[in-house]
Amino acid sequence: MKRYGFIFARGGSKGVPGKNIKPLGGIPLIGHAINAGKESGLLDRIIVSTDDKDIARVASKLGAEVPFMRPPELAQDTTPEWLAWRHAVEQMDDFDIFVSLPCTAPMRTSEDVRTCITLFEAGGCDMVVTAREADRHPSFNMITLDDNGLASIAMPPTENIARRQDAPEVFDMTTVAYVTTPDYIRQHNGVFEGRTKAAIIPPERAIDIDTELDFAFAQFLMERKQ
């Protein structure tokens, strides 16, 4: 069973310029993904897909492989991540398990990576994603606005439920890890086209960096942890 870890890190981040190699807790952001993959003890290779030479250089220095460069057309703001996954799979030799470890979840642990791989290999699904318990519920405190600016509950309860605690539990997807097979990526076009399971991650390890505020919060959490 060959398991390959992949880190997809393009150079054109808008929310946090230079995000993927910006220092966080003393090492470049991408280093946290590389280290979690290494320390999981379950990945045979850790491969970085990037269009950026600086990211490639830093990733190589931190112990990841950069066996190919991603074409510019697969590194645009509008490029579906799935196409970058498919491109990466096609560049590699035959392997069994695909594990994506996005740079944007630096608080993940090696145990989180092992949990996701173990859940997938237990069977019964085509993909494993990660999620955390949601802070808000679409039936109680999430709203939509119509063309006139009038608000309504995003997902009105179908039953007479008065308390959030009595409503079906909902989760926020996170970017801690994705686990599937190369064949699933080749034959499908999205995470939920098949049978998908979720590994539930504690909120303090599920932060997803998209903005400068997210980055500052991750820095705070890391400093407190140290």
TrEMBL record:
Q: What GO molecular-function term can you cite, just one?
A: nucleotidyltransferase activity
Q: Which Gene3D superfamilies match?
A: Spore Coat Polysaccharide Biosynthesis Protein SpsA, Chain A
**CDD domains reported in the protein's UniProt record:** CMP-NeuAc_Synthase
- UniProt name for this protein: Acylneuraminate cytidylyltransferase
Q: Name one Pfam family in it.
A: CTP_transf_3
Supply the alphabetized keyword list.
Nucleotidyltransferase, Transferase
